[in-house]
Specification:
alpha+beta, 8 helices
Length: 242
Amino acid sequence: MPSVTLSERYVLEAEIARGGMGVVWRARDEVLARPIAVKILHEHLSTDEAFLGRFRREALAAARLTHPNIVAIYDTGNELGPDGVERNYIVMEYCGGRTLETLLSNGPLAPERVADIGATICDALAYAHRHDVVHRDIKPANVLITDDGTLKVADFGIAKAAFVTGDITTTGSILGTVTYISPEQARGQEPDARSDIYALGVVSYELLVGRPPFAEDNQIAIAMKHIREEPPPVRSLRAGIP
């Protein structure tokens, strides 16, 4: 992709992540002279006016959150590219470092570390829930660990724009997230703050034993297990957990 500047101020420098909703770029804010992250929505989402309306509303709600463990949202915008395709984007705090998903690739963590991580994410969730913002997509890929070791939860509230229908089969971006889905979300019901707590429980389980509680090739099968089954006790998979 050639050098791109959005809104005559956000200069895209390098792609750093790609997901179901869009591509995240490391960028620079030329006006405030600071590094930022820019998420550009996938083209098929940018042509869905209903989705864009929800996306902008949720981004504005999430932008009100100011917490040391939540990735800050600075701005949203859209403009036509030279190819005539509209780019819709969200401008966020740039955190650097790595994700909890990357950390997990080295194997399970010490129980004390898992407790510290869980407590920090709980602080962020409690703050957001007090401000009526539900994340809906808590998972290791959405938890960042900065270079100085600070945990930051990313994409607060943004998932609601994609998952508002409650149908796990209609939004491609939810595939791969079913691992952390709450039973009520799997049933197509409206999630609330408790859904985030459930997802954090799944993440904590995975951090402790190195694998999520339910794993199947079929995404629908995983969702049904969240509804119908109890996960194997963590001590059956890893001895010595307090």
